[in-house]
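User: Teach me something about this protein's shape.
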Amino acid sequence: MTTYEPPTGTVRITCDRCGTTSLEPLAGRVMCRSCSTQVWPRSLDAKRFLLDSNAYDYLVVSAEIQYVAIDVHKRGLVEYLMTSIQVDQISRVPDAERRNAMSAIPFVITPTYGLVLGLSKVGLARFGEPERVAAIDSAVGNHTEDALLATTAAYEEAVLVTEDHRLRSKAIAEAGEVWWPQEFVDYIRSL
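Assistant: First, the predicted structure itself:
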């Protein structure tokens, strides 16, 4: 049996809607050539992570760690998923240098699993089970962003990385894999 390795800078994508498989340039998302559905390419061997915004602080504490975080992504060993939630949170970081360093970490945009009116962005959210979001959110609804991150990580079969104790306990209870940020940094350094 002969296996085919995609050329450097490309990935093999399979459209969830029509099943068409093609090679595409490595990018955040591409359009399926057959049915025009937006498709998010996935590296077959990459371990997937969804980092809470507080975890990005651990990746930009030094140039060395930031380089490692970028390098392991470029080599296809890890994939960083980012939702509109993290984009908004990072854009509100007051320190411009830190904000730019966080934004330099490569990522694949993924829609949230769950849609919350007034919070979710059109085209960047998918319908999910409201009960799953509610199980992680607080009774007064002030942890909705965290709930969307946790449900998205679980849906995407990605490891949620956060130092938020409340979010960790709720996400673990909902059967998701959760790592501490330092545990994640140690992992990418070992690759």
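Now, about its shape. Residues 1-7 have pLDDT under 50 and may be disordered. The chain has two domains: 10-39, 47-190. If you'd like, I can walk through any region in more detail.
User: That's plenty for now, thanks!
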